[in-house]
Automatic annotation (TrEMBL):
This protein's name: Homogentisate phytyltransferase
GO cellular component, one term: chloroplast membrane
UniProt GO molecular function: prenyltransferase activity
Membrane-spanning residues: 95-112, 118-143, 164-188, 194-214, 221-242, 254-276, 302-321, 327-346, 358-377
CDD domains: PT_UbiA_HPT1
Protein's cellular compartments: Plastid, Chloroplast membrane
Keyword set, alphabetical order: Chloroplast, Membrane, Plastid, Transferase, Transit peptide, Transmembrane, Transmembrane helix
Alphabetical list of NCBIfam families matching this protein: PRK12887.1
Membership in a protein family: Belongs to the UbiA prenyltransferase family.
Gene3D superfamilies hit by this protein: UbiA prenyltransferase (1.10.357.140)
InterPro entries in UniProt: AtHST-like, UbiA_prenyltransferase, UbiA_sf
């Protein structure tokens, strides 16, 4: 056995050794440990001591940790609701929703002949058409996302299905619900042009996206462009104009100059949207065998083809505006289209075609031109 003095000396030496180890460890841990994830994201690991216990206090992707680990903070109801609304906002593809609503309002105004035509029945009928069309719009863009989950993980990883915010089951429920609500509302309104617009949009939207034999027409560049043209240029202009003209006002189905102009101009615009939307998505389309015009011809050629088509459309619009017998209509439509054409050209010259972000931003700018055109169409006389 050790004597009491020897035992005491042994304990002192052990304490000194342990103290040296702790001092060395603390010195080495003053700087946080930085780990590099394979995807390029940095993680910072810092250690601190509380009493005799060590804690990991930061293990986040370049973001500070606001609470201690293992401390559970349930999401507030307001936060959860905000997240849900944000996910649905992205799922609905808001630029297409805005385009659909504006186009229906604009085309409906073409049927208005005098101020007394602005009746409660008119506003109710237009609102019913907008809501039914928006429900169908969400069905179409939602089905496209359901069919393109793997492609969107490359091209649009922020979308709810691609990012995992929505499960496939959630996407299916949303898509099916909005299709049913659209048809139910259209049926209750009892307008044949409205029902026809919804039905054709449903068929073309389904055939465009769904991956079953003889379908998924988006794989074929020309057919895909024709689908978008048929809905955006023909169905929207003619069917919703007839909805107001025949169903709301009970007038004969005639097509005045503004309706013909709107259909022709939007034919150009719809082809541009169909071509341009694939320019920033070239990588995913190449990987998954989508033979878009961008994949086949290259980004630069398709980009300048789109700009040329839009400039042709604006030139035609200027000619139509100049031929108007109404002075105010002539001035507004000619100057308006000249201004839009000039802005388009200036913006196009400054786009960096090597940058996906720049191309995507310009694509959103084209949608703004699309919105602006629907503000000018009711003024064509």
């Amino acid at each position: 056995m050790l004597s009491p003095i020897s035992s005491q000396n042994l304990r002192v030496r052990r304490c000194q050794a342990w103290s040296n180890i702790e001092s060395s460890f603390a010195l080495n841990c003053r700087q946080p440990l930085v780990m590099q994830h394979a995807g390029g994201i940095k993680y910072n690991l810092s250690l601190y001591r509380r009493g005799d216990t060590k804690y990991i206090v930061n293990a986040a992707s370049e973001q500070p940790l606001e609470s201690e680990p293992l401390s559970y903070q349930p999401k507030s109801l307001q936060g959860s609701l905000q997240d849900s609304l944000n996910a649905f906002y992205k799922f609905s593809r808001p630029h297409t929703v805005i385009g659909t609503a504006l186009s229906i309002i604009s085309v409906s105004l073409l049927a208005v002949e005098k101020l007394s035509d602005f009746t409660p029945i008119f506003f109710t009928g237009v609102l019913e058409a907008i809501v039914a069309a928006l429900f169908m719009n969400i069905y179409i863009v939602g089905l496209n996302q359901l069919s393109d989950i793997e492609i969107d993980k490359v091209n649009k990883p922020y979308l709810p299905l691609a990012s995992g915010e929505y499960s496939v089951a959630t996407g299916v429920i949303i898509v099916a619900s909005f299709a049913i609500m659209s048809f139910c509302l259209g049926w209750s309104v009892g307008s044949q042009p409205l029902l026809l617009a919804l039905f054709i949009s449903f068929l073309l939207g389904t055939a465009y996206s769904i991956n079953i034999p003889y379908m998924r027409w988006k794989r074929y560049a020309l057919v895909a462009a024709m689908c978008i043209l048929a809905v955006r240029a023909v169905i929207v202009q003619i069917a919703f104009y007839l909805h107001v003209q025949t169903h709301i006002y009970g007038r004969p189905a005639i097509f005045p100059k503004p309706v013909i102009f709107a259909t022709g101009f939007m034919s150009f615009f719809s082809v541009v949207i169909a071509l341009f939307k694939d320019i920033p998505d070239i990588v995913g389309d190449q990987i998954y065998g989508i033979r878009s015009f961008t994949v086949r011809l290259g980004q630069k050629r398709v980009f300048w083809t789109c700009i040329t088509l839009l400039q042709m459309a604006y030139a035609a619009a200027i000619i139509v505006g100049a031929s108007s017998s109404s002075l105010w209509s002539k001035l507004i439509t000619v100057l308006g289209h000249m201004t839009l054409s000039l802005i388009l050209w200036i913006r196009a010259k400054s786009v960096d075609l090597e940058s996906k972000a720049a191309i995507t931003t310009f694509y959103m700018f084209i949608w703004k031109l699309f919105y602006a055109e629907y503000l000018l169409i009711p003024l064509v006389r």
